[in-house]
From TrEMBL:
Keywords: Cuticle, Signal. PANTHER family: CUTICLE PROTEIN, CUTICULAR PROTEIN 47EF, ISOFORM C-RELATED. This is Uncharacterized protein. GO terms for cellular component: chitin-based extracellular matrix. Residues 154-167 have a biased composition (Polar residues). Pfam families: Chitin_bind_4. GO terms for molecular function: structural constituent of chitin-based larval cuticle. Residues 148-171 are annotated as: Disordered. Residues 1-19 form the signal peptide.
Length: 197
C-alpha cells in the first residue's frame, strides 16, 4: 500500500511540476470532527477535483488509530511537499487569511474563505422540500479584484428554480424592440382560432 502511495505521489509531482503557472483553487471545503473523522475537497480552475474523507474505526488496539493518523500525516505531508515543489519560485502563493466551515447533522452547512489578494467566497445551504423530493437550497457570494484593479462581485441562489446569479458582471438581455413587443401583445390578445378536425 505504501509503495502505491509513493508511486502516486511521484506521478502527481511530475504532473504538477510540468505546469508553468500555478492553477487557482476555485472551490475548497474542509471539516474535521472531534471524533477524528474528516472530509476535505478542492477544485482548481483547470477542472482538477480532489476529495477525501475518513472516520476512525475502533478495531482492536489504540495502535490502529495511531497507525492510521500516522499514514494520514505522511500522505498529507507528501501532498503538501509535491504541491509546493510545483510552484514557480518567482511567484508568491496567495495566502488564505480567513477560512470557516460548518456542517450540521441536519444537512445544512456554511463555509467561507478570504485570500490575501481580497478574493472572498461564501456559501450556505440547507435541505428543502420541493415537488420532486428534498433538494439542497443554496445561497452564496463571491468577490474578487481583476488584474487591472476592477472590483467584481456576484451573489447567487440555487434551488428548485435553478441557479440565479445577480451582479454587475452577469450579462443582461437587450430590451425587446417596441415593434416586436406590440406584435407579441397583439398575438396574446388575439389568439388564432383552433382548427376543427
Amino acid at each position: 500500500m505504501l509503495s502505491k502511495i509513493v508511486v502516486f505521489s511521484g506521478l502527481l509531482a511530475v504532473v504538477l511540476c510540468a505546469a508553468e503557472e500555478p492553477v487557482a483553487i476555485v472551490a475548497q471545503e474542509s471539516d474535521i470532527q472531534p471524533d477524528g473523522a474528516f472530509q476535505w475537497s478542492y477544485e482548481s480552475a483547470d477542472g482538477t477535483k480532489q476529495e477525501q474523507s475518513a472516520s476512525v474505526k475502533q478495531v482492536g488496539e489504540v495502535n490502529n488509530a495511531i497507525k492510521m493518523y500516522g499514514k494520514i500525516l505522511v500522505i498529507s505531508g507528501l501532498m503538501a511537499f509535491v504541491y509546493s515543489a510545483a510552484l514557480p519560485e518567482n511567484k508568491e502563493p496567495v495566502p488564505i487569511v480567513a477560512q470557516e466551515s460548518d456542517i450540521q447533522p441536519d444537512g445544512s452547512f456554511k463555509w467561507s474563505f478570504e485570500s490575501g489578494d481580497g478574493t472572498k467566497l461564501e456559501q450556505s445551504g440547507a435541505p428543502k422540500q420541493a415537488e420532486n423530493g428534498t433538494i439542497e437550497a443554496l445561497q452564496g457570494s463571491v468577490s474578487w479584484t481583476d488584474p487591472e484593479g476592477g472590483l467584481h462581485s456576484l451573489t447567487y441562489t440555487a434551488d428548485e428554480n435553478g441557479f440565479q446569479p445577480q451582479g454587475s458582471d452577469v450579462p443582461v438581455a437587450p430590451e425587446v424592440p417596441a415593434a416586436i413587443a406590440r406584435a407579441l401583445e397583439y398575438i396574446a390578445a388575439h389568439p388564432p382560432a383552433k382548427e376543427e378536425k
